[in-house]
Amino acid sequence: MTETTEWQPDTELAGYSQRVFELGADPDGEAPVSATLIRAPKSPRTTKGAVLYIHGFTDYFFHEPLADFFVSQGYRFYAIDLRKCGRSRRDGQTAHYVTDLSLYDVELGLAVDVIAEEVGIGAGADDPKIIVGAHSTGGLIAPLWIDRLRRLDPTRHSLIGGLVLNSPWLDLQGRAAMRSPAVTAVIRSVGITRGLTVLPQDLSPAYGDSIHESRHGEWKYNLDFKPLGGFPVTFGWIRAIRNGHALLQAGLDIAVPALVLRSDKSYFAKQYSSRTDRADAVLDVSHMARWAGCLGGRLTSVPIPDARHDVFLSLPSVREQAYAEVEAWLATGLRPPTAKAAAKKAAAATPPKKTVAPT
């Protein structure tokens, strides 16, 4: 049975609030699960809607400047630490471990309900909406969830106005052999029978070293929640990810406008170097470019030159460009094109008729 606490001071960010969803027994057999909704303290002068931000793997919400940006654009800001992640992880739980990404639908639905009530989000065409933002693994979780809402929960889906994806994980990085049917079959088989078995491959600390203030970066965050070298990857969890990839690549229909931001290049290394600061050191950006069209709905896809894996944790001038792209999309990308604009676009896409001279 789900229980929800009242708002309390956040345990990580001064001035922020948190509300815990006690979700009960874990379907994956570990300790009872919970999720944590985080609320920014600032409110815009005129509220256009709200943002719900979803973190990635080996991650949690700590990025106050991101919240401040969306508030400056007129949106109340909320983020969620999913079950077994960040603030929500409990003793007896494997970090981030789920065997089905749809399990997150429970806490995401509760978050939508709380936000809708607090902010006045409505189902009408002109009512304020929730913009869902998501990073990396969250960028896979979010569109799958929104697609399910469209099919299974249209009332909640009507409260979603758009989707902003920050370097979404849309395919498995690495050598092509890692994405082969044979390897995928092994992942699925072991994931079912021995889900908590750890993959025999360590994650590189290069990305963590590039962003944390104790190493080469400027960002302060809790290394217990977001260790430099990442959490171990289990077969049960990666099976859930590969199943999610397959569903997305088969084609979704999220039925809301989407903005996809990513770096213009990837650079993988075992150790940090200055090149790590100006590339995605975690995922393959070509996969994002290839599969973004599978989201459905109106899509705007923008490569940000020299961006890091989290484009909003990039070097200052780079992240400012990312913020500028979001600001422009919020101003124009959420509105359907007018009939005049659509006709002009169609005319521009139609090649002129050839004139054949008389013989």
UniProtKB/TrEMBL annotation:
| Pfam families linked | Hydrolase_4
Cite the Serine aminopeptidase S33 domain residue spans from the record.
47-265
Which SUPFAM superfamilies has this protein been placed in? Answer: alpha/beta-Hydrolases
User: What transmembrane ranges does the database entry give?
Assistant: none
Name the chain's protein. Answer: Serine aminopeptidase S33 domain-containing protein
Q: Which organism is it from?
A: Gordonia crocea
